[in-house]
Structures are given as structure tokens and as C-alpha cells.
Amino acid sequence: MSILVFLIIILAFIVFTGIINEKLFHLQADIATIFFSLIICLVLLIVSKLFSIRFLEEFVQKIGEFGFEEYLLDGALCFMLFAGAGKVNRAKFKQNIRPISLLALLTTVISSFLYGGLFYLIVLLFGLPMDIWTCVLLGCVVSPTDPIAATGILSKIGLSKNVCSVIENESLFNDGTGVTLFIFVRSVILHSGDGNFFVLMFKEIVGAVAVAVVASCLLFKLMHLTADPVKYILISLLDVSAVYVICEHFGFSGVIASVVCGMLFSYFMQGMERRVRIIDVHNYYEDFWEMLESILNAVLFVMIGLLVFNIEISRFALIVIPASVIILILSRACGVAVSTILTGKNIPGNYNLGEFVTLMTWSALKGGLSMALAFGTAEYLPPEVYSIFINVTYVTIFFTVLVQGLSVKKAYFMLEDHKAERMRQAR
Fold first, then answer.
1. Of the residues 30, 266, 274, 294, which has the maximum number of CB atoms within 10 A of its CB?
2. What is the rounded (10 degree) CA torsion for 289, 170, 391, 113?
3. Residue burial 182-194, b: 16+ Cβ < 10 Å; e: rest
4. Contact between 424 and 172 (Cβ < 8 Å)
5. Residue 288 has what pLDDT?
């Protein structure tokens, strides 16, 4: 299937599901996109199985063969991260840097290993063909929260700026931890000896930050040589794409580098705000990145829905899927609790421990990066284990985006009411 035909299919899904939602259901746009895409794809899949329609069978097969991992990791991810990081509130980030750092680093590590340990108990109980390190690897896949889901969904449902800042910034930075941990555990499984986790982490973070800072500072100087706002956009595109490719080539974290690039360009652009106001009177730069983020988000959520064509249901699905959801919530809650205790008394939003753990657990949405990591295990995992990985990851994404994403606003306001009552009684 040609890229243009695939693009037409994607755009058709986005437009028609968007109009249906706007007229009838009024769900948050990104949630509606992934939900209705899944429903349509399931209907097509069922029809293709029940009736021998050659055109439909070929369509389903070709859609399922599209390279989701390549699209996300080798294409759209860096631009989506750049756009999301460009909207980071620096004052809120500095104010909450301790809890953000602990959540992004410690929570991800704790939840990944705890998830693996709890999942291994299910393995032993039901005789699944997995060892402890494979279970931990699965934990590394599903534990990191997704920055694309966080910025695309949570920022639009009415959470306070302070709370939203913690959730979004954790999501932007914890993927670097998750990917590094994933590489380390994978090396243990493959006996490739890629080194100590902390050495890998240091290399990925320091290398990514160094490349992002040097390249962004150099390329941003080109902004002063032009009075064309379109070239501002092109320079920013060049920066994040070049930095991402360089980091991936040298084994640094392209994810973290893209986030740093976005924050740096946002800072630099504010530093020359007077010049930008004169040159970019129509606000092309900010509008471009806002629209690009919205389009890429919509495309990604449709593609996640389309992935149902490419998933084979594991014979252990009825066991692992319910268990994986429970384990996901427990491991995340424990990881957040440890990080929050280490944060001290200054918990963001003036929450107590239980309130903050509840909010950060229920707002932890998963997305495309988890799916891409899961697909990447096909090369070295046995088919039966790989099938478990894909099933668990796919259900995890849909549970967090649909169930948690649709209810997190209600949960947030319930916690706000609980906090207000607690503070009233303390007076």
C-alpha cells in the first residue's frame, strides 16, 4: 500500500470520527479518535473473518503490515516531543523539579521491576512460558507514562496548571528512563553485556543533553540571520530531527534530546520576543507547532486503533489481560508512593500522600512508545511470548487512555473536594 493511500485512510478516519464525536458524543477529541478507530477496525475485522470478501481481506492485511514502529520511532516521535516540550511552563517546572525528577527516574524503575515481579507470580501460577527477566522487560514496556497522551489529553480536561505541569513533565522525561531500562534488561536477556544500568543511564542522559544543547545553540543563531518566519519553523524542524538522528546513532536518548531541544527553543524564542513579534506578526511559528502536534497526535491515535488488524490473540489472553491491568495499577501506585515520600512535605498541589498517589496513578496514560517497544521485541522473543507482550501492551494502552482518560477529570475533582474538606477540618 502506498504512503498516499495510507494517508487517505488515516485522514478519513480522523475526519469522520471527529465529526461523529462532535455531533453526537462530545468526548475529548484524542480519546474519541482512538475509541472510534478501534470500533471501526473491529467491525471490519469481524466482517472480514465472517464473510469472504477479497477486497476487505486484502485491505485488512495491508493495513496490518504498515510499519508502526518505524513511523513513530524513526519519524513522528521527535516532532511530537519537541512540540510538547515547547509548551512547558518553566516556572512550574522549576517549582516542582524534585517531584518531577523522582517520578521520572525512581518511579519508572520501581514500577518496572515491581510489575515484572508481580507478573512473574502469574507466570508461575499458570505456567506461562516466561522467565523473571522477560517479565521485567514487559514492565519496562508498559511502565513509562506517555508524553503524547499526557499533553494531548490531560492538558485539555481542566486540571490545574500546577498538577498538569507535574504530569506532563514527568511524562516527557520518564521515557528516557524507560527506554534505557528496556535496553539494559534486553541486554541481560540476550547476554549481550551492554553494561551497568546507571552507566547506560548516564551515557544516554548526558550525551542527549550535550548534543541537544550544542546543536540548538548553534542552529538558533541562524534565527538572527533571517527575517522570514517560515525559516524559523524550518530551523526548528532541522534542529530536532538532526539532534534525534545523531543521538540515536551514538546510543544517546533521542527522546530526552527532543525534549531538551523543545525547551531550549521555547526559551530562546522568548529571549528574542520583541524581534519575533515584529517579524512573525501572524504567529506562524507557534501556530505551526500547535497544528503539527494536533495532527500527529490524531494520526498516532488512529494508527493505534488500526493496529488491531496486526494483533494475534494469545491463548493466555484471558489470564494475562485482567492480571496485567491490576498489576499495572499496583506497581504504579507503589512507585509513586516511594517517590512522593522522598519528595518530603512539599507535595505538588498541597495534596497529602494518598491523594497525590491516587492522582498520579490514575493519570498515568500509556501510548505509542510502549507499543513501539513491544513490537521491537519480535526479533528475539519466542512467538508465544511476543504475542503475550503485544496483547498486554495493547490492552494497557486502551485501558489507560479510554478508562482512565475518560474518568481522570472526575477523579481529579473528587480529590480536590477531599483535599478541601481535609483542609477545612484541619483549621
1. 30
2. 150
3. bbbbbeeeeeeee
4. no
5. 95
